[in-house]
Structures are given as C-alpha cells and as structure tokens.
TrEMBL record, chain A:
Assigned keywords, A-Z: Iron
Region entry Disordered, spans: 83-120
Keyword Iron annotated: yes
Organism expressing this protein natively: Acetobacter tropicalis
Protein name listed in UniProt: Ferrous iron transporter FeoA-like domain-containing protein
Bilayer-crossing regions: none
UniProtKB/TrEMBL annotation, chain B:
Residue ranges constituting the FeoB-type G domain according to the UniProt record: 6-174
Protein name: Ferrous iron transport protein B
Entry-linked NCBIfam families: feoB (TIGR00437)
Main location: membrane
GO CC, one annotated term: plasma membrane
Species for this entry: Acetobacter tropicalis
Function, as annotated: Probable transporter of a GTP-driven Fe(2+) uptake system.
Compartment annotation: Cell inner membrane; Cell membrane
Family according to the record: Belongs to the TRAFAC class TrmE-Era-EngA-EngB-Septin-like GTPase superfamily. FeoB GTPase (TC 9.A.8) family.
Length: 120, 613
C-alpha cells in the first residue's frame, strides 16, 4: 500500500521510499522532509479537484504532496486501509531505530508518538 | 575588543523556522518576515555590536531542508555554508536556527550542518510555543549530546535574541566532531528526541487540526478562498472611500490655496497643474493601496497562503505549473519585482521561466490607481443584491481577467514541454495570528515606499509632463487649444493613428509613455495633460468627473483592458533580465504583453461600442 492510496484521516506507517530512477530528486527530498521508514503519516485533506494534491501530516509538520509524489511512499503492510483514524500503529516497537519501546497510551496518536516517547 | 576583525556568522535553518525574524531582532533590520516557506530568497547581510563590544556581521540565508539544494535559493545557502559562494569566505560561525515546535524535521538539517564540522551554535527558536504543545526540552542534555552550544530565542518578541548575543560574546565554540560517515540522521534525531524531549501534558487537539478541516475542505475551503479574495477587493473600494475623500479634498483645497497665492503665470501652472494635479492625483490612492497590502500581509502572516496554494494546485497543474508558482504569483499582486525574485524557490527551471513570464499579468498595486480612477469615473457606486459594491465587482473582474489570461499564457508556453514532474512538496505551516505591531510596521514601510515614489519619480515625471504639455507655447495668432501645439500634444497626435483603433485619444497616448516608468504615472500624466488643457485653474484632483464627461464608456473600458496586460514597467523588465540572464525573454514578454494589451483593448472598445450603441 502506498501513501496515495490512504484514505482521509487515516494513519499509516512508512516502510520505505521508492525512487523512480537513480537520481530521483523528489524521492531524496521526501526523505529530507522527514518521510523516512518508521514514521507515522496521516492524510488530512485532499485537494478540491480530483483529490489532488493531498495534505499529509508527519510529526508536527504538514505537507502538500501531489499524488505522484505520494506514490513514492510505500507504507507498511499492517497499515489497514480501514484503520480508524485515531488508532495509530504502535510503530516504535517495530522500529529498530527507536530508542525505547513507547508505552502506547490510549491517546497516543500517530503524530505525537516520536516526540513524546518517555525519556530513556 | 573592538579591534578584532568582525565575526562573520550565518543564520541557517529550515524554511519558516524564523531566521529572518531573528536577523531583524539582532541587527535592527526590517527584512520581510512572513509565515510561509521561501520568504527570503537571497543572502542578506546585516551588522551588530554585541554587549561586550564585538562587531558581528550576520548573514541571513534562504531556508532549506537540506544541503542537497534543489532550487536556486537553496543553492545560495549550500554554497555559503560550504564556503564556496563567490566572493564570500565561509562564515566563522554557523548559527543553526531550529524551530522548537518542529524539532523532528529541523534537527535533521541541523545535524546535516553539524556534519560540515564548522563551529556552530544551535538556536531553539519559538521556545515560547512548545509549552503550548505540552512539551519540555532538556536543553543542557541536548547541548551535551550535540557538543555545541544550544541557546533559546523568541524571534518575534522584543529582546528575544538576547541569549544569542550572549553566545556571540562567549569564546567561539570548538568545531563539533562529525558523526561517522553514513550515519542515519533521522535515527539520530529520534535518539535525541527520546533523550531530551518530554511530554508534560496531554496533547490537545491542535488548532491546525480543527481549522484545516474547513480550510482544506474541497467545498468549504474553496468557498473560504473566494470569500477572502472577494472581500479583499470589496474592501479596497468600500473601506478606502472616506480616507480617499479626505485626501481628495485636501489636495483640492491645497491646489486652490496655492493657486490663489501664486501670481498667474508659468510658476503657478507648474505648481498647480504639474505637481499638485499630477502627484496629488496619485497620492489619493494611498488608502486603497494600504488596504490591499493589509490584506496581503495579514494573509502572509497567518500561514494561509500555502493552503491557498494547496487548494489551487490542480488549477495550476492544468496550466502546466505547480502550486509552487502560486506564492510568487501572489506576491506579484503587490509588485512583479519581488514576485519574480521569489520564483527562485521553484525547482523546475522551465516552471520558473513560465512563472516569470506570467507574473506581470498579476495586477500589481501600481495599476490600482489606474483602475480605481477609471472605475470611480465610469462605474456607478451601486450595490448589487444589496450586498456587492458594483465597483468592487468590476475590480475583481479585472484582477480575474489577469489571472485567467496568465493561466492561458502558461498553458501555451508549456504546450511543447516534456511531461517531467513538477514537484509540489509544500510545507503547510502552523497558523499564526498576524501581529498588530508587525503589520503596522510593514504597512508603514509600504506607505513610505509609495510616498517616496510619489515624491521622486512621480513628481519628476509630472513636472516633465507639465513641461511637455506647456511648451512650446502656441505661435501668435494660433487658433485651437494651446496644448495642441505643445510637445505633448504633438507626440500624442503622432501616436494617435495607431491607438485610435482601440479608442484612445491623444491624451491617453501621451500618458502611456511615462506610465512605462511607473504605472501610476499614467494617472498623474492624464491629470496634468487635462489640467494644463483646462481653462479654469482648479482642475486639480477633479480628473474623474472630467474624464467621465469627455470619454466614452468604450474608451474607458479599452484603457482598463489595456492595463490588465499593460506593457510592463521598466523595473519589471530589468528584474526579468537579471533573474533569467536573457534579453530574449525580456523581448518576448514585452512583445506578447503589448500584443495582448492591444488585442484586449480592441475587443473591449468595439464590443462596448456595439452594446452601448
């Protein structure tokens, strides 16, 4: 599943970014904008004409992406397309880079998780 | 201490992290600050003296997400940081500005900078806002982990840069040791966040969440966008009216007084017909221009503009452009010169070129006096459906005509373009309530720019116009109005054969020429020509009734249509030359705008004549 297939106000976790060519500047820039494996993302709006572009929330930032750009972002399989909007995946456990397992409290939505992890 | 060479520091950071606010704070400058990515597109230098007496040169660099630059403005930052910018040694100290509200994104770029191994300090800007997010940052811990000094700042608050000044007085920090090559910087950011950031209160639903549901909504969002733009144009007419009447009366009584004081003759004609009638007619439009800017500035500061770009991206895409072109085009409503400069944030070179070419079609504020004069003279101040001011509606239509033409031109220019991707990747910043203080400072600056234009270019051209329309005096025994014998009269009559097909009279023809230097001058030139030609001396500030008596509606519409496309002012052409480095583009854009202006005027003139009989 890819980010451009995610439905409105649904959260997903990034698996990897797929570069379309060896020098895909857009794929590289996506990484620099924080679209990296393990990060939770959420679709907050679709554009008025043909649902393009889409507004995506990642961490505390929101970005407008065209669907062709979002297509490069591959989500993890356990991201169910029908997942209710606020039930975020407890992604930290699955993420080897995360320093400590987050205690997923009921309210821990996807956006705060990476910042709000308890101090080690 | 003062005999030390000045310390050279560079402010570097992500777009919209508040570098320019800090720059202004530190140096007392008033560079433009707004709430969207890409306000600063070139390096700006300023100076300051620290409390301990150390001289510091500060560079404000365009924001970038990474040192792997993808657009011209980002390349400037990359080159300065790496010390390869032409004529600019590497800065002694990098000041990495990080928005405390967006650490996850901004710390990554800070780490990338740290990898350069140059002396640096980290500034946590907007530190006042993080408590609202329910977070605390362990700053000593962060400093220890990074191995570079970390200070806090509030760029938009007076005195919010004190910690930075103190850090500049401290002995320069040793360069940090870069992390091993190939370290995953994102993973390092996560490690730092887990170590140094703690949540102290439950996360509240962000204001952005609630507002964006409406603002980015496919239906409501479009409605909001149109209402905002619509009110803007209505306001230009309705709110400004009382102030304009005041100025208008002031100018008229000034003309009367001065006219009565001076003896009849050349001097009186120069002052009354040349300066007061000319420059005075333009000054009257100050309230309208300020209201237009008030809207633009408030929208810029609120963080709404990138969202408008989001809503309109598909429309821009249909013309072959990306939403990225939206902000440069919107700035062009103020003036095409900064608009064209801000195209440096556009990555795709062809997109950038097309945006530069169509930027002059956005109605700049200098055209507002021309529109306002003609609309005021020819369109009745009626209300339609008890709500819409007809004059505002016409103004809205003129702006819309410019925008639609721009989309068509872009489409044509991109016709043969390859189907390469036009990246959008636009950050939607947090909303911010526009500050009264910064709004009034910016408005005051706008007023100053406008008044100094009136005081310099416009007065000069008005006097020139006056001289051209007064000399040479008619030969003895000449019949007909004196002005027909003047230089202006002759030039106008010379141009007439070409322009009469679009309904212009010779007075308009003459006024077009100084309008190339500054578009408002078309108004003052008309005022001067008519004032010199008028028999009574009090023609000053009475241009509108005079025009509505002498021109046909078709002529008025024709001139309005002309100014939608209006052959550009010289400063626009100069900036196109500078930004593209190509004379060819300058000629192409001059020619196509001239052609479109002529065609549109021709249509407007003949269609109006057909309809009005």
């Amino acid at each position: 599943m890819r980010l451009n297939q995610l439905s409105l106000r649904t959260a997903g976790v990034i698996d990897h970014i797929e570069a379309l060519s060896t020098h895909d500047a857009i794929a590289q820039r996506l990484g620099e904008l924080g679209f990296v494996p393990g990060e939770p993302v959420k679709v907050i709006a679709f554009g008025p004409l043909g649902g393009d572009p889409m507004a995506v929330e990642i961490g505390f930032t929101r970005f407008a992406l065209r669907r062709s750009e979002a297509h490069r972002i591959v989500l993890r399989d356990n991201t169910a397309a029908t997942a209710p909007s606020c039930a975020a995946q407890p992604h930290e456990q699955a993420d080897p880079a995360a320093p400590s397992p987050a205690t997923s409290t009921a309210d821990s939505s996807s956006r705060q998780a990476p910042v709000a992890g308890p101090p080690a | 201490m003062t005999d030390l060479p000045p310390l050279r520091v560079a402010l570097v950071g992500n777009p919209n992290c508040g570098k320019t606010a800090i720059f202004n704070q530190l140096t007392g400058s008033r560079q433009k600050v707004a709430n969207y990515a890409g306000v600063t597109v070139e390096r700006k230098a300023g100076r300051l003296v620290t409390p301990a007496g150390r001289r510091v040169q500060v560079l404000d660099l365009p924001g970038t997400y990474s040192l792997a630059a993808t657009s011209p403005d980002e390349a400037v930052t990359r080159d300065v940081c790496r010390g390869v910018y032409k004529g600019e040694p590497a800065p002694d100290l990098l000041v990495s500005v990080v928005a405390a509200t967006n650490l996850r994104l901004h710390l990554r770029f800070m780490l990338e900078l740290r990898q350069l191994g140059r002396p640096m300090i980290v500034v946590l800007n907007m530190i006042d806002a993080i408590s609202k997010q329910g977070l605390t940052i362990d700053i000593p811990r962060l400093q220890a982990e990074l191995g570079v000094p970390v200070v806090t700042a509030v760029g938009i608050k007076r005195g919010g840069g004190q910690n930075i000044l103190a850090a500049l007085d401290a002995p320069p920090p040793p360069p940090p040791t870069p992390l091993p090559e190939g370290t995953d910087l994102h993973a390092e950011v996560r490690r730092l966040l887990a170590l140094c950031v703690a949540r102290t209160s439950e996360r509240k639903q962000l204001f952005e969440d609630k507002l964006d549901r409406w603002v980015l909504h496919p239906v409501w969002g479009m409605l909001i966008l149109f209402v905002l733009l619509f009110i803007m144009f209505q306001a230009v007419f309705s709110w400004a009216q009382p102030f304009m009447d005041m100025l208008d009366n002031g100018m008229k009584s000034l003309g009367d007084h001065v006219g009565a004081l001076l003896p009849d003759g050349v001097l009186r004609s120069l002052v009354v017909d040349g300066i007061i009638a000319g420059a005075g007619t333009v000054i009257v439009f100050l309230p309208q221009i300020l209201i237009l800017f008030l809207w633009i500035l408030a929208l810029e500061e609120s963080g709404y503009l990138p969202r408008a770009a989001f809503m309109l991206d598909k429309l821009m895409a249909s013309a072959g452009l990306s939403g990225r072109s939206f902000i440069p085009l919107l700035s062009s409503f103020a003036c095409a010169v900064p608009g064209i400069m801000s195209t440096r944030t556009i990555q795709n070179p062809r997109d950038r070129m097309v945006t530069i070419m169509i930027a002059p079609l956005m109605t700049c504020s200098a055209r507002l006096p021309v529109y306002a004069l003609l609309i005021g003279a020819f369109i009745p101040a009626r209300h339609i459906a008890g709500l819409f001011n007809l004059q505002g509606l016409v103004l809205f239509g003129l702006y819309a005509a410019g925008i639609l033409s721009a989309l068509v031109v872009a489409r044509v220019l991109k016709r043969r373009a390859t189907t390469d991707e036009h990246p959008l990747l636009l950050e939607l910043p947090n909303y911010r309530l526009p500050g009264l203080q910064s709004l009034s400072i910016e408005l005051w600056q706008r007023a100053r720019i406008f008044l100094s234009r009136v005081g310099t270019i416009i007065v000069t051209l008005s006097v020139l116009m006056w001289a051209l329309s007064s000399f040479p005096a008619p030969p003895a025994g000449a019949t007909g109005p004196a002005i027909d014998y003047s230089l202006a009269g002759r030039i106008g009559h010379l141009m007439l054969p070409f322009f009469q097909f679009i309904g212009f009279n010779w007075q308009i023809c003459v006024a077009l020429i100084p309008g190339l230097a500054a578009r408002e001058v078309a108004v003052s030139a008309l005022a001067t020509v008519y004032s010199v030609g008028a028999s009574e001396a009090d023609a000053a500030s009475q241009l509108a009734p005079l025009l509505s008596a002498q021109w046909s509606l078709a002529t008025a519409f024709s001139l309005l249509a002309w100014y939608v496309y209006a052959p550009q002012c010289f400063s626009t052409l100069a900036v196109i030359r500078r930004e593209t480095g190509s004379w060819r583009l300058v000629w192409i854009s001059t020619a196509y705008l001239f052609g479109m202006a002529y065609a549109a005027s021709f249509l407007a003139y003949h269609i109006t004549r057909l309809i009005s009989g």
